[in-house]
TrEMBL record, chain A:
Keyword terms of this UniProt record: Cell membrane, Membrane, Transmembrane, Transmembrane helix, Transport
Protein's membrane topology: Multi-pass membrane protein
ABC transmembrane type-1 domain sequence ranges: 62-238
UniProt-annotated location(s): Cell membrane
Name assigned to this protein: ABC transporter permease
One of the protein's GO biological processes: transmembrane transport
Entry annotated with the keyword Oxidoreductase: no
Annotated signal sequence range: none
Keyword Isomerase tagged: no
Gene3D superfamilies: MetI-like
TrEMBL record, chain B:
Domain ABC transporter: 4-235
SMART domains, alphabetized: AAA
Keyword entries, A-Z: ATP-binding, Nucleotide-binding, Transport
Organism: Pararhizobium mangrovi
Protein name (database record): ABC transporter ATP-binding protein
Domain of life where this protein originates: Bacteria
Nucleotide-binding keyword on record: yes
Gene Ontology terms, MF aspect: ATP binding; ATP hydrolysis activity
Keyword Transcription: no
Assigned protein family: Belongs to the ABC transporter superfamily.
Amino acid sequence: MRNRKAMVGLGAIAGVVLLWFALTRWFGIIPIGRFPTPGEFWDALKQIELRGFAGSRLHAHALHSLRLIVISFLVAVATGIPLGLLMGWNRRAEALINPVFMLIRPIPPLAWIPLAILWLGLGDAAKVMVIWFAAFVPSVINAHAGVRNIDRSMIEAARMMGTPPHRLVMEVIVPAAMPMIFTGLRLSLQASWTTLVAAELVGALVGVGFVLNVAQQDIFPAMILVGMLTVGVLGWFTTYVLGLVERRVLAWSVQGRA
Amino acid sequence: MGAIRFDNVGKVFGRANSGFAALEAVDLDIREREFVAIVGPSGCGKTTCLRMVAGFESVSSGRVLVNDRVVKAPGSDRAVVFQQFALFPWKTVRQNIEFGLRNKRTPRDERNELVDDVLKLMTLESHRDAYPHQLSGGMQQRVAIARAYVLDPDVLLMDEPFGALDAQTRVVMQEELVRLARINPRTVLFITHAVEEAVYLADRVAIMSRRPGTIKEVIDVKTVRTSEDWDGFEKIEDVMDLESFVHLRTRIWKSLREEKVAVDG
Ligand SMILES: Nc1ncnc2c1ncn2[C@@H]1O[C@H](COP(=O)(O)OP(=O)(O)OP(=O)(O)O)[C@@H](O)[C@H]1O
Ligand SMILES: [Mg+2]
């Protein structure tokens, strides 16, 4: 079954590549220079990986971006989930934090870039801050909702069994909220990539966003495409890893089995 | 151990004087190891009564006592079996049953022994490592009952525990509960809509009036059951055919009917 799904996926990708050949080369529907041909793309890929582009080779750009994503995502999750859980469980904490959160939440993460650069310069710290902010919000919201939506009888069952507070939190509330928490994590990861690329476009010396930026200044469409597809592959990879973790953690749930 | 006493209990939801009176002057004494079923029209406050004993709900007036002590908070001396099972879906059957014992800090060897015993008692051994969603409703409710039993509670509180089960499973569970209750009698407060179920299971059946709910009548079943030897029959349908059973059932039915009519009128 999984094999079959993978086959269909590969087939679809092959179809898109064929279409790309067809449109750019065989029929010339897309004029030369407007969109790179597969050959140009391949040359650009070879160039960046073998000789380097925008200061580094492709894998160095990719690893740099990936590292930033992982760090920022983990920081965001490690701060967002506890805050969301706290707001979901404690009415007083919710009353205190939620208004502030509601006010900050609609600010697009990219709007923090100027401030981040002003505070932390053009280095990685500023990017971590901006990504942290983007990934933090969905983690908080979903952990919060996860706790608020826990079936009341679940808590009552725990109470009637004389569950002490720490076990109530660790063995009942957190696992009960876990499916929602994972929904938040997926959104957080997506937001992390969006923000990273934007942040690197604005100010960076290495990274896939920086590749895109330089390629645009050089008017080099094939290299832009290389940068874009690199982001796509990296994004897919991180989502895949998160999915593996989710399947393990939520093995008990009906969704987890699917 | 395990006597329950409702002493002139009232419950008002919402504000104390402008709120909605759910219960009024409920008086009921449940003796140690007695099985009492409550029947009554929908919304008369049966669940509220049970939740007060469990410690989930406060009283507005009067007192609820368990073992002569006023109930203040939930505790493992009063185990609850919920209509919707309320198992932890992230824990296996075994972990669900074990959960309360770990709260009590029961030593591991003793815990394993107790869990094994109750798994056997409820014929759950082959499902010990399954997750709840892998089990049928009847099996899940067995786990919920096992989870309550293993705590060795003074009092078992069951709110329509078989309400979510299909008719056949329900009958099996009823027979099994009778078996459990006779092997190992407990103080049980059992809520149901099914009059037959109440008569079959309980030592006494308390009938509640419509809102604001109060105990209207308490009917003794045990005397009839012992003198007619219902427990000598293995199958529930054989008991239900007995004249003594039909007589009691009809009597309770009529009493309930009066309440329903009063609602309409
Ligand atoms: N938390 C609450 N807040 C307000 N009203 C409530 C609350 N809980 C119950 N009630 C009301 O109190 C009355 C009694 O409720 P309860 O659930 O005890 O009835 P019941 O006899 O168990 O009904 P059923 O047979 O349908 O289960 C109902 O009218 C219900 O709407
Ligand atoms: Mg009810």
